[in-house]
Design brief:
Shape: elongated
Oligomer: single chain
Distance between the termini: 29 Å
Number of strands: 0
Strand content: under 5%
Radius of gyration: 16 Å
Largest sheet: none
Order of helices and strands: HH
Length: about 70
């Protein structure tokens, strides 16, 4: 994969993460009449963010093990 492809992937995933956090925050703070996502869609966002969290923790753990 070229450097441009990697950079594009990082940018896309970063934007998806930021938009996901903003959407969850919006739905947590405003009254339900303003909600634009359904419960299933919010759950998919939670799963996406959870996967990011777990993968980050696992990669940090692996990096620490390799640096010993």
């Amino acid at each position: 994969m070229s450097a441009g492809g990697i950079a594009g992937t990082v940018v896309a995933l970063s934007l998806a993460t930021i938009l996901s956090v903003l959407s969850l925050t919006f739905h947590a703070l405003v009254p339900s009449r303003f909600h634009y996502l359904e419960a299933e869609q919010l759950q998919a966002i939670r799963v996406f963010l959870g996967a990011i969290l777990v993968s980050g923790l696992l990669s940090d753990y692996a990096r620490r093990l390799m640096n010993r």
